[in-house]
Amino acid sequence: MRISRSLIQYYRNRHYSLCDNVCWFIVVLMWFILLFLYPSLPSTIPIHFSLVGDAHTFGDKSFIWLFPTITTLLHVGLSLLAKYPHTLNYTQDINDSNSEEQYKKAIRIVHILKVVVITIMSIILCITLYVSK
User: What CA–CA distance (Å, rounded) separates 44 from 61?
Assistant: First the structure.
């Protein structure tokens, strides 16, 4: 079943631009840090940690490339999702009178989610690199 919803022009303000710029900076920084440190990593690195921070699963060092790859894909995917808020699910019916407000809220949530997820992925990468040394 296809729901027909009103479309709005992609709403972008300086806070969203700041979020995008910060996210791109973190993603590019992740790639550069990994490119710089990869040759000095041991051949086996920790890939899973317990709740107290002890590494208990180890794998090949090439596994570390998944962090910036997944982070880049998440950033691109969430950025595209924010441009098409009419495709998201909403808890209330969307009509012409409330669509702009609901879409702006959805875009804001997607941008916040993007910053949080990318920050967490970069922290996980840094911890993995630190523990690997």
Answer: 5
The answer to whether 118 touches 23, Cβ cutoff 8 Å, is yes
Does 76 fall in a domain? yes
Q: Is residue 3 part of a domain?
A: no
- Residue 62 domain boundaries: 14-88+97-132
SS3 percent helix, strand, coil of the chain, rounded to 5, is 65, 10, 25
Burial of residue 93 (number of CB atoms within 10 Å: 0-12, 13-18, 19+): exposed
> Does any domain span residue 1?
no
Q: Residue 126 and residue 133: Cα distance in Å, rounded?
A: 11
Q: Tens of pLDDT along 76-107? A: 999 999 888 888 888 888 888 888 888 888 88
pTM, full prediction: 0.83
Which candidate, 61, 68, 74, 70, places its Cα nearest to that of 30?
Answer: 68
The C-alpha atoms of residue 38 and residue 45 are separated, in whole angstroms, by 11
